[in-house]
Amino acid sequence: MPRNHAGREGSPFTGIGPVYMKELADHLSSIRMLVLTLFIIVFGAFPVASSLQQLRTTIGSDAYLFLRIFTIEPEQVPIPFIQALNFVIPLMAIGLGFDLVNSEFNRRTLSRVLSQPLYRDALLLGKFLAGLTTLAVALMALWLIVFGAGLLLLGLPPRGVEVARALGFLMVAIAYGGVWLAIAMFFSVVFRSTATSALCALGLWLFFFILWPLIAQAITMAFVPPEITSLDQFVGLQQLALALQRLSPGTLFSEAVLALLNPETRTLGPMLPSQMRGAIMGAPLPLDQSLLLIWPQVTGLIAGMIVVFSASYVIFQREEVRA
Amino acid sequence: MSDNVIDARGLLKLYGEARVVDAIDLSIRRGEIFGLLGPNGAGKTTTILMMLGLTEISGGSVNVLGFNPVRQPLEVKRRVGYLPDAVGFYDNLTARENLTYTARLLDIPRRETDARIMDALQSVDLAEVADKRVATYSRGMRQRLGIAEIVMKKAEVAILDEPTSGLDPHATFELLEMIRRLKRAGVAVLLSSHLLDRVQSVCDRVALFNKGQIALMGTVVELANQVLGAGHPLLIEASGKDIAGTLGGIAGVRQVVPAGEGAWRVTADHDVRAEVAHRIVAAGGSLTKLSDLQPSLEEVYTRYFQEARHAA
Q1: Helices then strands (H, E): number in chain B?
Q2: Which residues have C-beta within 8 Å of that of residue A201, sequence separation ≥ 6?
Q3: Is the Cβ pair B82, A8 closer than 8 Å?
C-alpha cells in the first residue's frame, strides 16, 4: 500500500508564498471576479438602499440604529441584507473555488508545477488562502460600502459598540464564505471536470437552502410521539430540529449574525421560562455576552471549513498527477 | 561518489495487482542522453514520476543526484528539470510571466530572475515572443518553452517525457537540436519516447521497455549486435551474372539474402564495401547502389519483440 510521507524532508510550506501571490493576482484580475463583485453589490445594495430609506423616516430612540441597516426587513424588498448575503456568499465562494485544482489538471500545468520544489500541501493551501483573501476583500468592500452609505444617508455616526458588532459580522461572513470555498475546492479535487465540480457544489448549495429545512422537519416529525406529555419532550424535539438545521452552514451563519446584529437576542434555541427569570425583555445584551452566545456557531463554521479542507487535502495527496 | 546522476535498483510500482514497473535497474551517467523507449503503457512515464517523487514507490530504491526522491523530493526537484508529456502553461499569462512564476517557486533571487529568463528564452528562440500570451503559442513553441524552463532552472538533470510527440518534422528537428545543446551544457538528459528513429539520432544509450521491464539496455550498436547479430550489414543493388555467388565468395561475408529485385542484403564481419565494388565490377556486373546499413533501432525493436513472442 502507498507509504505515507513520514520522514520527508523540507517544510511543507516551501513555495506557498509564490502560489498565494499568483492565485491572488489571477483572482483579482479575472473577469469572473468582476462579475461576482457586481453580483454581490447588486444583491447587497438593493436591500440596503431600501432599508436606509425606511430607516430615515423612522426617527426613533433606537440605540442600535446603525445595525438595523443590515437586519431590517424593508417594505419594498422583503429580503433583509443579511438574508441576501446568506444566499449570495456561497455562490461567490463556489464561483471562486470550483475549478481551483482541476483546472490545473485540464491545463496540464499540475505536473509541471509539482515538479518544482514545493509540496502539494503548499499548492492546496496557497490556493485556498488566496481564494479566502479574495472573498474577504470583496466582502470587506461591500461592508465598507454599506457603512459609508449609512454614514451619508443617516447622518449619524455609529457608536463604538456598533462598529465592533458590525466587524464581528464581517468576520463571521468571511468564515461562512470559507466553508463554501472549502466545499467548492473539495469538489474541484474530487472531479477532473470543472463542470461536474461546479454542478456538485451548486447542487449542495441548493440542497442546503431548499431541501434541507424540509428534510430536517420531516426527520423531526418522525420522532414525534403520539402524545407529547412533558415539556422536556417538547424541548427535546425542538432541539433535535435545531440540531439538524444547524448542519447547514447557512443556519449557523444566520444565527451568529442574528445574535451579533440584534443585541436583544438572548438565546438561539428554545427559550425556557427558567431562562426568562430576571430578564428584562427587549434589553440588549452586552457585546461579550453576544459573542459567548454565538461562540458555538462560529467554532462550528471554522471547524467545518477545516474538516472539508482536510478531506480535500487527503484526497489530493493520493491523486496521481498524470492526466 | 559515482558518475551516475540517477540510480534505480529494483524499482517497483504496483497498481493493485498490476506490476506497472517491474523491479527495474537503471543508471544514467553524468552528461549523457539516455532514451527510455517502448510502446505506450510500458511504464516509462511511471518510472519518470517515481524518480521525481511525484508518485509513490511500491518497492526498490531510486537515487537522484545523491538524494532520495521519497524523502527529499524538494532537493531532487530543485535540481531536476521536468518536461511532462504535452506540457501545459498558463494560457492567460505571457511566456515571461509563466517563467517568472516558476522562478519564484524556485526561489531564484529577484535581481537575477529577468536575466535568467531572457537567456533561457533566447536559447530556445522564443525571446521575440516573450511577452505574447502562451495561448497564442503552437505546440512546438510550448515544448520549447518547457525546455527554456529547464535551462532557467539550471538543472543538472533534464527529464523529458515524449518531447517530440505531436510535433511536425521541422519542430522535432529543432527540439532535438535543443536537447543536444542541453547535453553540451553538461546536463544529463533522460527522455522517453515511442518514436524510435527520432530518438536514435540523439541518444547515447537507450533502454527498451516492455510490460514494465527493461528488455534491453545499451548503445544502439550494442543492442543491434545483441539482437541482430554482430557484423556490418550492407545493402547492394546491382545487375549482372550470379551476383549472389560473387558476393558469397568475398572473404568475411557471412550471409547474403535477396532483398527484392536486383538487391541483396549482406552481413559481413568487417567493412567489405571496397571489396564488393571491386568484385562486382570485375565480374562484368554494374553496381547501382552500395550502402552501409546503420543498425536501426526500429529493426532491433521489431526483431526483439518478434523473438520474444516466438519464445513465449
Answers
A1: 11, 13
A2: A94, A97, A98, A180, A183, A184, A187
A3: no
| CA–CA separation, B265 and B247 (whole Å) | 10
8 Å CB contact of A117 and B78: yes
In angstroms, the CA B62 to CA B8 distance is 4
Pairing of strands B59-64, B286-292: unpaired
Helices (H), B57-94: 73-79
Backbone angles phi, psi at A92, to 5 degrees: -65, -45
DSSP count for chain A of H helices, then E strands: 14, 0
Note whether B56 contacts A2, CB cutoff 8 Å. Answer: yes
CA A89 to CA A184: how far, in whole Å? Answer: 12
Question: Domain tally for chain A?
Answer: 1
Residue ranges, CATH 3.40.50.300, chain B: 4-218
Q: If we measure between CA atoms, which residue out of B71, B188, B126, B161 comes closest to residue A112?
A: B161
∠ at Cα A54 (A53, A59), nearest 5°? 110
C-alpha cell at B203: 541518444
* Cell numbers representing residue B194 in the block: 515511442
For the domain spanning B230-294, the CATH number is 3.30.70.100
What are the beta bridge partners of residue B208?
A: B37, B216
**Is residue A5 one of the residues assigned to a domain?**
no
Alpha-carbon distance of A183 to A305, in angstroms, equals: 8
CB–CB of B88 and A14 under 8 A? no
Distance from CA of B248 to the nearest CA of A (A): 54
Q: Which residues pair with B11 in a beta bridge?
A: B24
Average pLDDT score over residue span A224-251: 86
Domain hosting A66: range is 16-272+282-318
Architecture of the structural domain at B4-218 = 3-Layer(aba) Sandwich (3.40)
Instruction: Using alpha carbons, list the distances in angstroms from residue A214 to A209, A241, A269, B254.
Output: 10, 10, 19, 89
Which pairing describes strands B213-218 and B205-210: parallel, antiparallel, or unpaired?
antiparallel
Task: Say whether B80 and A118 touch across the interface (CB within 8 A).
Answer: no
Q: Per the domain annotation, does A2 fall within a domain? A: no
Q: What is the ipTM of this complex?
A: 0.85
User: Which amino acid, residue B89?
Assistant: F
Chain B residues with CB under 8 Å of A102 CB are: none
CB B268 within 8 A of CB B232: yes
The verdict on B133 touching A (C-beta cutoff 8 Å) is no
Asked if residue A323 belongs to a domain, the reply is no
Compare all CA atoms of chain A with the CA of B91 and give the residue at the minimum distance.
Answer: A107
Contact B60/A at CB under 8 A: no
Per-residue pLDDT of chain B (312 residues; tens, 9 = 90+): 468 999 999 999 998 888 999 999 999 999 999 999 888 888 899 999 999 999 989 999 999 999 999 999 999 999 999 999 889 999 999 999 999 999 999 999 999 999 999 999 999 999 999 999 999 999 999 999 999 999 999 999 999 999 988 889 899 999 999 999 999 999 999 999 888 777 788 899 999 888 889 988 988 878 877 777 767 778 888 888 788 888 888 888 888 888 888 888 888 877 788 888 888 888 888 888 888 776 777 878 888 878 877 876
